[in-house]
């Protein structure tokens, strides 16, 4: 059975609503990336060095990342030799198979580290403008849908309007927000939130954090201070440090991930605005080069458009047209 058929069978057993969200959210990337790949396959009848050179350029332009692309091309060349592939049409399922392998690293856990007993504390970090506060609101909704009691801490006390924005999300999803005045010490806000969450026996506390101070050193120091308060008040916490990145910023998101990764023990990525970019290949670059799992992706504006990351759904959303064409051919 071909890789596409196996993928189709797996996806068929999953929720149609989720599959549709991935298909719609990845439309721009699919139209650009797969459209250009189809053109490439059409222009080259046989798999040769020129074909691989153009494929390399195509993948780099989709923000897959140079290191990842080089490794991927080497693996594809090995597969072509092993399977004795001559025709370019036969290589598309192999490309999608390799992309799925890159996204599904062995031993990876893309689910949230929720505690079975006691409170789970999730620290959410990221620079201003990436959709951090919105992601926290949507994550609160997602957790409530799972039957969890949730509270949010308005720890971004420096950005104008950040506290109010979180309060709006709190009202929208029915979650209490612990706050102080703008300009307050974020560590003090965290302390208040932790005490309130403990007193009310809350399942999950979502902590918003500052996205910009005078400089990078100050920001990282501030995050470290907040983390110390959390560790002191809830041993073993934070149970997750989620870094929010904007998919539309491409390789800039990679450099942000490296900076935060060095300072805050990032345990997972929330990749927003994936529906707004044709360069969805950034998911592959982050996954492969940074070795941090992508845990959630933003596929639209609605409250339920922040979806848990699923490698198979992602590959299916990317190659939907190729899958459907293959299905028609086999009928």
UniProtKB/TrEMBL annotation:
<dbReference type="InterPro" id="IPR013822">
    <property type="entry name" value="Signal_recog_particl_SRP54_hlx"/>
</dbReference>
<keyword id="KW-0675">Receptor</keyword>
<keyword id="KW-0378">Hydrolase</keyword>
<dbReference type="InterPro" id="IPR036225">
    <property type="entry name" value="SRP/SRP_N"/>
</dbReference>
<comment type="function">
    <text>Involved in targeting and insertion of nascent membrane proteins into the cytoplasmic membrane. Acts as a receptor for the complex formed by the signal recognition particle (SRP) and the ribosome-nascent chain (RNC).</text>
</comment>
<keyword id="KW-0963">Cytoplasm</keyword>
<dbReference type="GO" id="GO:0006614">
    <property type="term" value="P:SRP-dependent cotranslational protein targeting to membrane"/>
</dbReference>
<keyword id="KW-0547">Nucleotide-binding</keyword>
<comment type="subunit">
    <text>Part of the signal recognition particle protein translocation system, which is composed of SRP and FtsY.</text>
</comment>
<keyword id="KW-0342">GTP-binding</keyword>
<feature type="binding site">
    <location>
        <begin position="272"/>
        <end position="275"/>
    </location>
    <ligand>
        <name>GTP</name>
    </ligand>
</feature>
<dbReference type="InterPro" id="IPR004390">
    <property type="entry name" value="SR_rcpt_FtsY"/>
</dbReference>
<comment type="similarity">
    <text>Belongs to the GTP-binding SRP family. FtsY subfamily.</text>
</comment>
<feature type="domain" description="SRP54-type proteins GTP-binding">
    <location>
        <begin position="293"/>
        <end position="306"/>
    </location>
</feature>
<dbReference type="InterPro" id="IPR027417">
    <property type="entry name" value="P-loop_NTPase"/>
</dbReference>
<dbReference type="InterPro" id="IPR003593">
    <property type="entry name" value="AAA+_ATPase"/>
</dbReference>
<dbReference type="GO" id="GO:0005886">
    <property type="term" value="C:plasma membrane"/>
</dbReference>
<dbReference type="GO" id="GO:0003924">
    <property type="term" value="F:GTPase activity"/>
</dbReference>
<keyword id="KW-0472">Membrane</keyword>
<dbReference type="GO" id="GO:0005737">
    <property type="term" value="C:cytoplasm"/>
</dbReference>
<dbReference type="Pfam" id="PF02881">
    <property type="entry name" value="SRP54_N"/>
</dbReference>
<feature type="binding site">
    <location>
        <begin position="208"/>
        <end position="212"/>
    </location>
    <ligand>
        <name>GTP</name>
    </ligand>
</feature>
<keyword id="KW-1003">Cell membrane</keyword>
<dbReference type="GO" id="GO:0005525">
    <property type="term" value="F:GTP binding"/>
</dbReference>
<dbReference type="InterPro" id="IPR042101">
    <property type="entry name" value="SRP54_N_sf"/>
</dbReference>
<feature type="binding site">
    <location>
        <begin position="126"/>
        <end position="133"/>
    </location>
    <ligand>
        <name>GTP</name>
    </ligand>
</feature>
<protein>
    <recommendedName>
        <fullName>Signal recognition particle receptor FtsY</fullName>
        <ecNumber>3.6.5.4</ecNumber>
    </recommendedName>
</protein>
<dbReference type="GO" id="GO:0005047">
    <property type="term" value="F:signal recognition particle binding"/>
</dbReference>
<dbReference type="InterPro" id="IPR000897">
    <property type="entry name" value="SRP54_GTPase_dom"/>
</dbReference>
<dbReference type="Pfam" id="PF00448">
    <property type="entry name" value="SRP54"/>
</dbReference>
């Amino acid at each position: 059975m071909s890789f596409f058929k196996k993928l189709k069978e797996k996806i068929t057993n999953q929720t149609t609503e989720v599959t549709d969200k991935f298909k719609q959210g990845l439309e721009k990337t699919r139209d650009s990336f797969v459209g250009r790949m189809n053109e490439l396959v059409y222009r080259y009848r046989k798999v040769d060095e020129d074909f691989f050179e153009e494929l390399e350029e195509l993948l780099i332009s989709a923000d897959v990342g140079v290191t990842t692309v080089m490794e991927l091309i080497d693996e594809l060349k090995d597969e072509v030799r092993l399977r004795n592939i001559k025709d370019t049409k036969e290589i598309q399922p192999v490309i999608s198979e390799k992309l799925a392998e890159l996204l599904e690293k062995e031993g990876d856990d893309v689910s949230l580290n929720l505690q079975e007993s006691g409170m789970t504390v999730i620290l959410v970090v990221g620079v201003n403008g990436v959709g951090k506060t919105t992601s926290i609101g949507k994550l609160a909704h997602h957790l409530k849908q799972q039957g969890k009691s949730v509270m949010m801490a308005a720890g971004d006390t420096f950005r104008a309007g950040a506290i109010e924005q979180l309060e709006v999300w709190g009202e929208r999803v029915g979650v209490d927000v612990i706050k102080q005045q703008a300009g307050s010490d974020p560590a003090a806000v965290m302390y208040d939130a932790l005490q309130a969450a403990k007193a009310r026996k809350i399942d999950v506390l979502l902590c918003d954090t500052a996205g910009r101070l005078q400089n990078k050193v100050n920001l990282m120091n501030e995050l470290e201070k907040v983390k110390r308060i959390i560790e002191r008040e809830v041993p073993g916490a934070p149970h997750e440090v989620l870094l929010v990145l904007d998919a539309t910023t491409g390789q800039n998101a990679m450099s942000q991930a490296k900076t935060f990764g060095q300072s805050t023990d990032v345990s997972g990525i929330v990749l927003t605005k994936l529906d707004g970019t044709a360069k969805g290949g950034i998911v592959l670059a982050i996954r492969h080069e940074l070795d941090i799992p992508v845990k959630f992706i933003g596929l639209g504006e609605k409250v339920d458009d922040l979806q848990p990351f699923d490698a198979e759904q992602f590959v299916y959303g990317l190659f939907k047209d190729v899958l459907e064409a293959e299905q028609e051919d086999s009928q």
